Structure formats: structure tokens, C-alpha cells
């Protein structure tokens, strides 16, 4: 899966574990500059790829980012949906590569997956079946004008049939908790509208391929 953005600082390619923080991050209030821990979720960003919508807080934030670098606890790169001035200044002060103008869908990814950030091309690559299926489900819902009965979503039905109800529900719960959809009874509604980049045929074809490959990997016995 590829996400396109704009590199503001840095070059080359970095790869690391993704840490997703879906709310605007205050480096002054939320982050411990000496340990690299985000206090609100008790997760370390040291040596990892941090994905956030934006930053918030005072002008002290950049100095906390510099402190992260000084104590060798800075993230490998910062991925943002919209980079504000303080975030850009802090990244440059701390020499942390930063990319912006990434789609909000990147915030629906799961922390812990591996991400490769190509700063020269302004691209982020993540190969995670669950994330790909979550985005395809959103695209199908967008093509249905943002509202549908859950049983009418073909991507969800395919997941439920091939991968099981627990797998399908886990992806749905993930989209609900990240604020992308709301479910009331048997109806699902898209809360964040966007322009779908695929046709019906493309969505179903890609979903079928991901689901079948995931199913086969689940059935494959572990290697000795």
C-alpha cells in the first residue's frame, strides 16, 4: 500500500515500526523529551516512524523535539496530514525527516506495522492486509455515497465469508474507534468523506486478491 505526501525536510529512505497517534500531538504536554514516550498512550517513538494528523501547543514544542534528538530518542521520521509551523521548525531543529500532505487514511493504520518512507519521492509504503482492506471498505462506502446497510457492503461480506466474522468485525471496530465510520443498528455511515480513487471493479478486484492471499496465509502451516 502506498501513500503519497510531500517531503518538507530530509532525504533518502528510512524504514521502521509505525506509531500512529490519531489526534493532534502536543510535544510539550504529551511527549517526554528524555525518554521518547508519548505519555497519553505509553508508547515510545524513539527510532520509529511517527504518524500524526498535526501538532498542537506552544512554541516550546520544537525544543522538546530538539531534546528528543539530543537524548537519541527522536523518531526516524514524522508523517503528518498537515504540518503546522511549529512542527516544521521543530523537525528542522531536531534534524528529524518530516513529510506532510498525507491522506488521513494513514491514521487508520495499526501501530506496530513496518513502514518504509521514501523521502526523495514523497511516498510511504506499508504492506498490511488489514490496513488495505480497511481502506478498500472505506472506498466502497464512499462509492455508495457514504451510507449503506452493512450486509450490502461486498468487501465486508467477502471478509466475513473468507476470513471469519471476528476478522471482519476487528477491522470495522478499528474504523469506528479511529472516527472514520459510525454504525447504528445494521447501517454504516462514513464520517469523513473523500474522493474515491478507484472504481467499483478495482475495489472488488483488489479486495478479492488481498482476502484470498490472507486466507491462504492463515491456512498455511507454520514453517519448521
Give an overview of the whole structure:
This protein has 224 residues and is α+β, with helices and mostly antiparallel strands. The protein has 7 helices and 13 strands. The chain has helices spanning 27-30, 61-70, 85-94, 129-143, 154-163, 165-177, 200-219; strands at residues 2-4, 6-9, 13-20, 37-38, 43-44, 49-52, 77-80, 98-100, 114-118, 123-126, 147-149, 181-184, 187-190. An 8-stranded mixed beta sheet has the order 1-10-9-3-6-7-8-2, covered by helices on one side. It has a 3-stranded antiparallel beta sheet with strand order 11-13-12. Helix 5 crosses helix 6 (165-177). The chain is elongated, with a radius of gyration of 19 Å.
Amino acid at each position: 500500500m502506498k501513500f503519497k505526501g510531500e517531503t518538507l525536510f530530509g532525504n533518502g529512505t528510512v524504514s521502521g515500526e509505525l506509531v500512529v497517534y490519531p489526534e493532534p500531538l502536543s510535544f510539550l504536554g504529551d511527549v517526554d523529551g528524555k525518554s521518547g514516550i508519548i505519555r497519553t498512550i505509553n508508547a515510545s517513538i524513539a527510532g520509529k516512524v511517527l504518524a500524526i494528523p498535526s501538532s498542537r501547543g506552544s512554541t516550546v514544542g520544537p525544543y522538546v523535539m530538539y531534546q528528543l534528538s539530543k537524548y537519541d530518542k527522536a523518531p526516524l521520521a514524522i508523517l503528518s496530514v498537515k504540518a503546522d509551523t511549529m512542527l516544521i521548525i521543530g523537525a528542522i531543529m531536531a534534524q528529524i525527516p518530516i513529510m506532510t500532505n498525507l491522506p488521513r487514511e494513514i491514521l487508520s493504520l495499526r501501530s506496530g506495522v513496518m513502514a518504509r518512507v521514501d523521502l526523495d519521492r514523497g511516498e510511504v509504503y506499508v504492506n498490511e492486509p488489514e490496513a488495505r482492506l480497511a481502506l478498500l471498505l472505506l472506498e466502497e462506502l464512499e462509492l455508495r455515497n457514504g451510507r449503506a446497510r452493512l450486509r450490502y457492503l461486498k468487501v465486508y461480506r467477502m471478509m466475513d465469508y473468507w476470513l471469519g466474522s471476528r476478522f471482519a468485525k476487528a477491522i470495522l471496530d478499528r474504523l469506528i474507534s479511529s472516527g472514520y465510520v459510525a454504525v447504528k443498528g445494521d447501517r454504516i455511515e462514513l464520517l469523513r468523506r473523500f474522493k474515491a480513487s478507484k472504481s467499483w471493479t478495482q475495489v472488488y478486484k483488489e479486495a478479492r486478491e488481498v482476502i484470498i492471499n490472507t486466507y491462504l496465509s492463515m491456512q498455511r502451516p507454520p514453517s519448521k
